[in-house]
């Protein structure tokens, strides 16, 4: 018998937050991070020297120092740089151009991230590592929906082949447009004049 224990948070506790350390591979970001971290720790050391400083205040300072460095893990360094550049510009024309670049780079980042997830999932399947496969599929963004079925035959079974779909449309319109003659036809009288209708 297996028991699954849930980790229940106590009142007032906050869940652990992931920190994105992938950006530390970029040397410029690593240097900037170290400088920011030293500055923040220096500020926290100054707070500790004061007499009225409590442990709670220093914890808040440390938490703020760590949480401000967190970013989405699928956004790459180039995109973050363009977002920072977007904050600095002033004119509208530059803003629209940079906005387009940011949107395109975010789309590219998402596609790269999805490809990376797919390759890790395929690797996990090949190796039989179900935990890694589950963790990978858990990270998939977006909402899931069933693939769209383009057509069904008369027995309501899905038609997937293109030629079968075309044949089904032909059959549908033949049934729709070729009605049998009505049982009680209306008595419509002919008019005395012919109308000129040009077919060209």
The helicity comes to 40-55%
Structural class: mainly alpha
Q: What is the count of DSSP helices, taking H or I runs of 4+ residues? A: 6
Our estimate of the beta-strand percent is under 5%
Number of folding domains? Answer: 3
- Mind telling me the C-alpha Rg? 33 Å
- Specify the biggest β-sheet: none
Number of strands: 0
Overall average pLDDT: 76
Along the chain, the helix and strand elements come as HHHHHH
CA-to-CA gap between the ends?
Answer: 82 Å
Q: Segments where pLDDT lies below 50 for 5+ residues?
A: none
Dominant shape = elongated
Tell me about this structure.
With 200 residues, the protein is an all-alpha fold. The protein folds into three domains: 18-71, no CATH class; 74-144, no CATH class; 145-176, no CATH class. 55% of the residues lie in helices and 0% in strands. It is built from six helices and no strands. Helix 1 (27-49) runs antiparallel to helix 2 (55-67). The mean pLDDT is 76.
